[in-house]
C-alpha cells in the first residue's frame, strides 16, 4: 500500500472506522521539542491510540498499523502491536514478507524493520532460509555494505541453515572467479586480493586478522613480507604495506637483505645513519601518511619496548 | 611565518598551536600537492597544515548554532514526525547541545524537568515491578499510553535508550537525582539483560546489540549504581564483539563499526574495566587489543579529514574513542576541523554531508567534536557519558 498523500481518505471519512473515536495526544502543559505534526499524521496516530487502548486485534487494525509505519517506520510500539495482531489473526506470514520487502526499498537501514523480518522468518522456520538469503542479496544490489542485511544474513545462516553455499556467494561478491574449494587457502586469497587492489584497506586487515591468535605464524610466513615488498616496489608510499612491515618487525621478524635494501631505498638518508629498519619505516610513514604523523612518531619512540615484547612473546611460544 | 615551496614557489602559511617557533628550525618535505609535513629538529610535535585556501575564513558559528537549537527546542518542523518515536532523543540532542554551546539559559529548566519526568513509566505496585517488564522512560507520547478504565491493561513501552536520554537531560539541567527514587529503573533493567550479556532495549522484544549495553552502562553510571546489570556478562559480550581488525562490531562476528566501537570502549571505561589514557600505559595487560584498535581507529580519518565509521564509509564517533584511549593528539585536528566546517550549515547546525540540510543528530556530533577540539566558548564534553558535565 502506497500512502500517496493526495489519494488518502481521512480516517474520519472511512465508513469502516465510523464507530471509533480517535484519542488525541496529551503532551502535557509545556512540551519540549514539540513536533509540528501534519493533519494526516495526527489523525492516524489518534486512531492507533484508540485501537491500541482497546487492544483490538482486527484486520482494520492491521491495516492501520501499516499506515502508521509508513509515517514513522521506527515506531517500535506499532510494529510490536502489528505482531500481536498477526498472531491473533493467524495471518499468512508470506504476505508479511512481501510487506516488509516493499518497505525495505526506502527503509533498508531501519532496525525495527529488520527485527520484524527476523521475527517473521523465525516463525516460518527453515523453509524461509532461501528466501531470506535472496532478500539480503536484493539489498546488496543497491547497498553492498548494508550492515543490517549482513547481520540478517549471518543470523539466517546460523539459525535457519545454509552455510554450504555461503563461501561461494561471498566469493562471488568479492571477485568474479569462484575458487575451487579444494584449492582454498585463505592467505593466498588475501594476498591475491591485496595485489589486485593494494589501496583497499580491507584486504590488508583481513590478511593481518588471519594471524590474530598466532603470532609465530605471522612472523614466520614469508608470504606476508613478500606481499609488502611486492607492493612497495610499485607503490613506494603504500601506507598499509609499510604498516604491516612495521608490525612484522615489532613482533620479531628478521628481514632479509633484499627487504632491507628496498626499505633503505625509500629513505636514502637512512643509509648513512645505519638506522634500524623499523625506525626507517616509521620515518617514511611520517612523510607518506602526514595525517597520522604524530602517531607514527609515537610508534617510533615505542619501538624499543614493542620489539622487546614481540621477541619475548615469540620465545614464550 | 611564511615558507615557499622549493618546487613550485607557492607561498605556504603554517598553522601551529602552543609552540614558540623561534626555538627550532623547520625542515620541510614535500609529499604531494596538498599535504605537507614539517619536521622540527628538536620539537616533538611537527607542524602540519594544508595548502588549501580559505581555512582562515571559516569559523565555528556559535551564535547561529544556538539559534538553530532554540528553534528545535520550541518547535520541530513536520518532516520530523518521521522520528516521532525518538522525540526524547531529539530533546537530548537539543538540550545537551545548548549546554555544550554554553547557552543552557535558553531552556526553561522547570518545563524540561516536568516534561521529561512525565515520560517515566511507573509500576503501580511491588507486584507490577516484578512482572518482568522494564520501568524506565518512554521515548515519546506515541509509546506512552494511559489505560482507560475498561479493564484492559496496556504494557508499558519504556525503552532503554530513552531512559539514557531522559537521565542525561535531567543531569544536564542540574536536576537533583536524590529527589526521585530511580530504583525501579535499576531493579527492572536486569530483565533486559540477555544470557549472552547483551541488552534488549524493550521487554516486548527487539534487537540486542552493543548500543544497549552502552545505554545500560551510562544509566548505571549516572545513577551511580551498578545493581541493574551484570558487569561481567556485559564485559564478555563486549569482548566477543571485537573484530580481527581491532575495531568492534555491533554484534559478535560483525564488521567493525565506528558507533559500535565507541559503545564498546565507552562502556568498558564506565564499568572501570579499562583504564583511561590506555595508549600511554602498558597495553599488553588490557582486556582488549589496544594497538590493533588504535591503528584501526586512526585509519578511519579519511583524506578529507572526517572520520569514517568503517573502511570506505562515514561517522564521527571514532574521534570519541580516540579521546578515551588517550590518543587524540594522533588525530589531524586541523584537517578534521576543516572537514567539519564544510558540513556547517548556513541555517546553523551541521549536516551529514557538505551542502545538505542540518539535522539534530549530526549537529550534536558537530558540537561535541568542536568541544573536543577545544573551540572557544564551548563547554567541555564528557565523552563516556555523552554529555557536558560542567555544572551550572
List strands and helices in order, with pairings.
The complex is a heterodimer of chains A (317) and B (392).
Chain A lengths: L38 H15 L5 H13 L4 H14 L3 H12 L6 H14 L4 H14 L4 H14 L2 H12 L11 H11 L4 H10 L4 H6 L1 H13 L4 H12 L6 H10 L2 H5 L3 H12 L4 H24 L1
Helix pairs in contact in A: 1-2, 2-3, 4-5, 5-7, 6-7, 9-10, 9-12, 12-13, 13-16, 14-16, 16-17
Chain B lengths: L1 E3 L6 E3 L12 E5 L4 E6 L6 E4 L11 H13 L12 H14 L8 H9 L8 H4 L30 H13 L10 H7 L20 H13 L8 H10 L17 H13 L19 H10 L17 H9 L7 H10 L17 H13 L20
Antiparallel strand pairs in B: 1-2, 3-4, 4-5
Helix pairs in contact in B: 1-2, 2-5, 2-13, 5-7, 7-9, 9-11, 10-11
Structure overview:
The complex is a heterodimer of chains A (317) and B (392). Chain A has 317 residues and is mostly helical. Helix content of chain A is 67%, strand content 0%. Chain A has 17 helices and no strands. In chain A, helix 16 runs antiparallel to helix 17. The longest helix of chain A is centred in the C-terminal third of the chain and has 24 residues. Chain A is elongated and about 90 Å long. About 3% of the residues of chain A have low confidence. By secondary structure, chain B is mostly helical. Chain B has a domain of 116 residues. In chain B, a hairpin with a 6-residue loop joins strand 4 and strand 5. In chain B, helix 1 packs antiparallel against helix 2, helix 7 packs parallel to helix 9 and helix 10 packs antiparallel against helix 11. Chain B is globular. The two termini of chain B are 41 Å apart. About 11% of the residues of chain B have low confidence. The interface between A and B is large, with 65 and 82 residues. Chain A: This is Protein farnesyltransferase/geranylgeranyltransferase type-1 subunit alpha. Chain A: Belongs to the protein prenyltransferase subunit alpha family. Chain A: Pfam families: PPTA (PF01239). Chain A: InterPro entries: Prenyl_trans_a. Chain A: Its cofactor is Mg(2+).
Amino acid at each position: 500500500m502506497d500512502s500517496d498523500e493526495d489519494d488518502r481518505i481521512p480516517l474520519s471519512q472511512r465508513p469502516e472506522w465510523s464507530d471509533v473515536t480517535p484519542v488525541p495526544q496529551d503532551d502535557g502543559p509545556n512540551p519540549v521539542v514539540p513536533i509540528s505534526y501534519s493533519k494526516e499524521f495526527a489523525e492516524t496516530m489518534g486512531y492507533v491510540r484508540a485501537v491500541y487502548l482497546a487492544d483490538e486485534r482486527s484486520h482494520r487494525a492491521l491495516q492501520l498499523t501499516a499506515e502508521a509505519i509508513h509515517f514513522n517506520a521506527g515506531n517500535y510500539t506499532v510494529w510490536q502491536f502489528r505482531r500481536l495482531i498477526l498472531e491473533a489473526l493467524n495471518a499468512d506470514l508470506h504476505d508479511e514478507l512481501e510487506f516488509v520487502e516493499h518497505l525495505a526499498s526506502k527503509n533498508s537501514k531501519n532496525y525495527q524493520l529488520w527485527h520484524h523480518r527476523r521475527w517473521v522468518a523465525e516463525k516460518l522456520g527453515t523453509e524461509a532460509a532461501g528466501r531470506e538469503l535472496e532478500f539480503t542479496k536484493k539489498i546488496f544490489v543497491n547497498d553492498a555494505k548494508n550492515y543490517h542485511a549482513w547481520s540478517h544474513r549471518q543470523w539466517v545462516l546460523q539459525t535457519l541453515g545454509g552455510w554450504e553455499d555461503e563461501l561461494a556467494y561471498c566469493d562471488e561478491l568479492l571477485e568474479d572467479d569462484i575458487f575451487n574449494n579444494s584449492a582454498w587457502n585463505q592467505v593466498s586469497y588475501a594476498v591475491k586480493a591485496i595485489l589486485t587492489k593494494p589501496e583497499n584497506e580491507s584486504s590488508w586487515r583481513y590478511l593481518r586478522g588471519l594471524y590474530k591468535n598466532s603470532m609465530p605464524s605471522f612472523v614466520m610466513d614469508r608470504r606476508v613480507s613478500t606481499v609488502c615488498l611486492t607492493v612497495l616496489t610499485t607503490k613506494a608510499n603504500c601506507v598499509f604495506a609499510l604498516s604491516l612491515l612495521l608490525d612484522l618487525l615489532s613482533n620479531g621478524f628478521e628481514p632479509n637483505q633484499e627487504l632491507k635494501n628496498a626499505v633503505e631505498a625509500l629513505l636514502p638518508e637512512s643509509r648513512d645513519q645505519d638506522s634500524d629498519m623499523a625506525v626507517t619505516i616509521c620515518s617514511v610513514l611520517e612523510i607518506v601518511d602526514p595525517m597520522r604523523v604524530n602517531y607514527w612518531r609515537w610508534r617510533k619512540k615505542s619501538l624499543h619496548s614493542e620489539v622487546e615484547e614481540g621477541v619475548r612473546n615469540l620465545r614464550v611460544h | 611565518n611564511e615558507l615557499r615551496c622549493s618546487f613550485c614557489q607557492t607561498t605556504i602559511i603554517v598553522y601551529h598551536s602552543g609552540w614558540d617557533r623561534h626555538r627550532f628550525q623547520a625542515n620541510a618535505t614535500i609529499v604531494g600537492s596538498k599535504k605537507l609535513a614539517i619536521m622540527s629538529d628538536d620539537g616533538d610535535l611537527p607542524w602540519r597544515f594544508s595548502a588549501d585556501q580559505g581555512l582562515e575564513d571559516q569559523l565555528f558559528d556559535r551564535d547561529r548554532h544556538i539559534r538553530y537549537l532554540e528553534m528545535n527546542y520550541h518547535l520541530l518542523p513536520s518532516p520530523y514526525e518521521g522520528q516521532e518515536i525518538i522525540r526524547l532523543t531529539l530533546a537530548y540532542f537539543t538540550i545537551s547541545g545548548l549546554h555544550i554551546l554554553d547557552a543552557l539559559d535558553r531552556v526553561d529548566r522547570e518545563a524540561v524537568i516536568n516534561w521529561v519526568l512525565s515520560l517515566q513509566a511507573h509500576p503501580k505496585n511491588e507486584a507490577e515491578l516484578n512482572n518482568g517488564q522494564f520501568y524506565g522512560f518512554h521515548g515519546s507520547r506515541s509509546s506512552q499510553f494511559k489505560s482507560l478504565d475498561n479493564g484492559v491493561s496496556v504494557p508499558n513501552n519504556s525503552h532503554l535508550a530513552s531512559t539514557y536520554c531522559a537521565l542525561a537531560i535531567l543531569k544536564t539541567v542540574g536536576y537533583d537525582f536524590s529527589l526521585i527514587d530511580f530504583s525501579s529503573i535499576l531493579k527492572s533493567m536486569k530483565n533486559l539483560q540477555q544470557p549472552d550479556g547483551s541488552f534488549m532495549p524493550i521487554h516486548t522484544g527487539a534487537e540486542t546489540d552493543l548500543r544497549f549495553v552502552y545505554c545500560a552502562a551510562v544509566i548505571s553510571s549516572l545513577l551511580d549504581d551498578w545493581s541493574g546489570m551484570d558487569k561481567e556478562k556485559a564485559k564478555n559480550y563486549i569482548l566477543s564483539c571485537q573484530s580481527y581488525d581491532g575495531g568492534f562490531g555491533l554484534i559478535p562476528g560483525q564488521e567493525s563499526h565506528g558507533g559500535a566501537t565507541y559503545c564498546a570502549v565507552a562502556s568498558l571505561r564506565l564499568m572501570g574495566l579499562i583504564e583511561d589514557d590506555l595508549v600511554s600505559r602498558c597495553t599488553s595487560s588490557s582486556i582488549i587489543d589496544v594497538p590493533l584498535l588504535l591503528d584501526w581507529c586512526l585509519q578511519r580519518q579519511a583524506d578529507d579529514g572526517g572520520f569514517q565509521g568503517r573502511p570506505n564509509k562515514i561517522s564521527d564517533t571514532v574521534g570519541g574513542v580516540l579521546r578515551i584511549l588517550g590518543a587524540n593528539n594522533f588525530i589531524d585536528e586541523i584537517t578534521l576541523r576543516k572537514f567539519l566546517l564544510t558540513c556547517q550549515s548556513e541555517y546553523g547546525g551541521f549536516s551529514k554531508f557538505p551542502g545538505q540540510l542540518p539535522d539534530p543528530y549530526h549537529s550534536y556530533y558537530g558540537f561535541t567534536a568542536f568541544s573536543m577540539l577545544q573551540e572557544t566558548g564551548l563547554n567541555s564534553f564528557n565523552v563516556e557519558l555523552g554529555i557536558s558535565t560542567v555544572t551550572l
